[in-house]
Amino acid sequence: MADGRQLTIIKVFRKYSHSLGPDALQLLEEILERHDIADNEVEFSIETIAREYNKQDDAAMKVSLDILRRVYDALQDQGNPGEAEELLDPDSHLYFVDAFEMPSWHWSQERGTFEKSSNALTVAGSADSRIAAVRNRLHIIKQSILRNEHFSPSSLPSRDREYLVTLKSTKQLLGRAGERFLLLGMLTHNKEGKLCVEDSDGSVELDLSKMDEPGEGLYTEGCFALVEGEYNDDGILEVVAMGQPPCEDRETARSIYGHIDFLGQGSTSLLEDSQFAHRIREELSDLYFFFLSDVWLDHPQTLVGLQKIFDNCIENSFIPKVIVMCGNFTSKSIMQGGGRDIQRYQENFDSLADLIASYPQITRETHFVFVPGPLDITGNSTLPRRPILSTFTSHLRSKIPKVHFTSNPCRLKFFGQEVVIFREDTMARMLRNTIGIKPNVTGEDLRRYLVQSILDQSHLTPLTTHIQPVLPDFDHALRLYPLPTAVILADKYEKYKLTYSGCHVFNPGGFVGNSFSFSTYCPAERSSEEGVLDIEQED
What we know:
The chain has 539 residues and is an alpha/beta fold. The protein has helices at 4-15, 22-34, 42-55, 65-79, 127-145, 250-257, 270-283, 302-315, 339-357, 360-365, 394-399, 426-432, 443-456, and strands at residues 94-98, 105-108, 113-116, 180-189, 195-199, 202-207, 219-220, 224-231, 236-243, 289-292, 322-326, 367-371, 403-405, 410-414, 417-423, 434-436, 486-490, 496-500, 503-507, 515-522, 527-534. One of its GO terms (cellular component) is epsilon DNA polymerase complex.
């Protein structure tokens, strides 16, 4: 009969969907004995080994002795004092990830993990890819819910088992009128215009008349919700409670899927992330990223404001590592404009290039990132949007050596941190398509509900495609799983910042107004601050 240590070892590896043979179990017990690991430290030690094993590209579900030894040897090498570490080079760990260059990982129900798509991705997509995009959203949310403490039973006997919540499928409702069920599905309207919840097995009509109010968050058509209610004889679920799915923090998701390179820039382990985080705090505490939104280049005050920012940076010897400028880069749409409007659009970018180039130190050291907005001229109007057409940015490319024209959304990878940048009028679109919300909410509540809903849904646009068109083959580029370190929801809505489930979210607000408003992000602190320059003296 297995002893307590063996049960702990088996439990930890099972968490990562791995099974242990007798030889592997024996090796792990020998490692614990060799290092005199106390009983209360066994789980932590085995967790470290299991995480590193899970990261290996050739790791099989049945634990391999050879791979296990390799992992152990690597951990031993990490623990040995070696030569003095070189100072961190931020540029060698800084990546700008375009949505159209991200690898596509889809959820495999058969394997219970992510699989890399082998199909060529196209802008047109297909009927199958449209269905797969929605199913991926459902399965990713569901697999994290089933790991949640309120849904997942402990491997040890516990009184808490009687309080566990069990998810049901719509097909399990048939012939069971009068019983109460908890469903997870997408909120949609059927052909008759009735509100329904739809999962992979079917759909059921909802009656919200008996529900006092929904849980916190914005419930939109196209979002996934946990719906509890009683199934009646008419085939309708009489809802008594509705809530957002629980959010899984970044560390938990990374501990399971840390071996998967979601961004295509190389994966790191949690141990490496922790080591980098410590060194960033020690060595790069004065490194900052600037974020600006609605940089209207056709507004007379915009270049004045940018000049003020650059002057302050030089005067204070405070050169940002990255300056992200989000659209719109025009205050009015020129999609249907004449030749003169389009020419002026290009000339405004040329003027910006000349302004930046007049600051040699900033030009030399700072990365400039341009993210298109809804009114900017790109190759497509659906999400994700392609970068601003190169026709308009040739002068910027020739003048600025570290310039990046990215998709919308795009991502910034810095050591173990992932920063998502998204320019869309998200608040207005979500509110226009809200099915349910708590009554008497304040502006602060709305900001919190928006952030909570986006992160709980693990997606930047939890809406149906007829409300927000999305290229189905690239829907993964809008996914927020694992949870990023930070999300910039650049929006014409008022600026804000808050942290939810360990993810820092902020809106820098419009750049031009009564003041030049922008935000600074400090990777060492994983937090943002508002940057404001007064313009009262400007004409």
